[in-house]
């Protein structure tokens, strides 16, 4: 991990090198250097974990252990979901790792459909690890590439700050419907990871927010959303199948997500990045 850490001065130089806004040279944006440094460490830890977990998933697939591969699928994805705003900066890898069948002309039958959801389709819809070995190898290569690229990346401040809202907006726009993990119905694992990633960004920026009423409101909304998710957490870890949620359950969850997304969408303005 030590090799991935960098100094505050290096971050400032890096921001300037990639053409960051001139405002970064003066207040208030200079205050973001510390939180950005901490967030890069958080992301690096998660990409490291993603590689480790993906290696275990790939090993289970290659061993033909269907039950273990299924058990590893959702927890492996969580590290990716936590840092999605940064991962999405690399569109080629994001498409290869996390695209859904809808993104391909022939859907699940398209040979170019790869990544987590291609493996998910095989594990749950065909009920076998057979034929997934190549997709597993490709996924592992992609997450290792992502890890390397992120370690060398200077994080754009506006992307990090905007990422808190982006994670909630994605849940509200496409994930509440259940379309993300449509074969495994492990959607709540993703939601929990998205909440965690969003809250990490917010918590790092929280000391810089002057509007205390806003802080109190967002703190309360995160707590409320967390309580809703806790209702579906299983005693042994993980979450119940998303299929078990009623339409009323989904509406309550959607309301909490939308409220957070609306509040967090104003973060950039409150920090002088609008």
From TrEMBL:
Instruction: Give the highest taxon in the source lineage.
Output: Bacteria
Imelysin-like domain residues are 36-267
Q: What UniProt keywords are attached to this protein's entry?
A: Plasmid, Signal
Q: Name one GO cellular component term.
A: cell envelope
**Region forming the signal peptide:** 1-25
Its localization reads:
Cell envelope
Q: Which NCBIfam families match?
A: EfeO (NF041757), PRK10378.1 (NF007697)
Family, similarity comment: Belongs to the EfeM/EfeO family.
Protein's recorded name: Imelysin-like domain-containing protein
Q: Which organism is it from?
A: Tistrella mobilis (strain KA081020-065)
Q: Lineage of the native species?
A: Bacteria, Pseudomonadati, Pseudomonadota, Alphaproteobacteria, Geminicoccales
């Amino acid at each position: 991990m030590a090799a991935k850490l960098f100094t505050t001065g290096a971050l400032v130089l890096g921001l300037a090198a990639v053409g960051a806004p001139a405002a970064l040279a003066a207040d208030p944006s200079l205050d973001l250097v510390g939180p950005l440094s901490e967030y890069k460490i958080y992301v690096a830890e998660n990409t490291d974990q993603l590689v480790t977990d993906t290696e275990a998933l790939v090993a289970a697939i290659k061993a033909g252990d269907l039950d273990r591969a299924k058990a590893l699928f959702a927890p492996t994805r969580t590290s990716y979901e936590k840092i999605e705003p940064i991962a999405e900066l690399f569109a080629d890898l994001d498409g290869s790792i996390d695209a859904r069948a809808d993104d391909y002309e022939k859907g699940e039958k398209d040979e170019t459909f790869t990544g987590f959801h291609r493996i998910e389709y095989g594990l749950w819809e065909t009920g076998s690890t057979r034929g997934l070995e190549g997709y597993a190898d490709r996924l592992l290569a992609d997450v290792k590439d992502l890890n390397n690229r992120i370690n060398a990346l200077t994080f754009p401040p506006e992307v990090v700050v905007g990422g808190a809202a982006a994670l909630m907006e994605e849940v509200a726009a496409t994930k509440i419907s259940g379309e993300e993990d449509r074969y495994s119905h492990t959607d709540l694992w993703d939601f929990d990871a998205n909440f965690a990633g969003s809250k990490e960004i917010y918590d790092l920026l929280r000391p810089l927010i002057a509007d205390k009423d806003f802080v109190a409101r967002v703190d309360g909304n995160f707590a409320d959303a967390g309580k809703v998710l806790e209702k579906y957490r299983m005693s042994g870890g993980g979450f119940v199948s998303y299929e078990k949620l009623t339409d009323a359950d989904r509406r309550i969850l959607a309301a909490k997500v939308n409220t957070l997304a609306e509040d967090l969408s104003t973060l950039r303005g409150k920090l002088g990045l609008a």
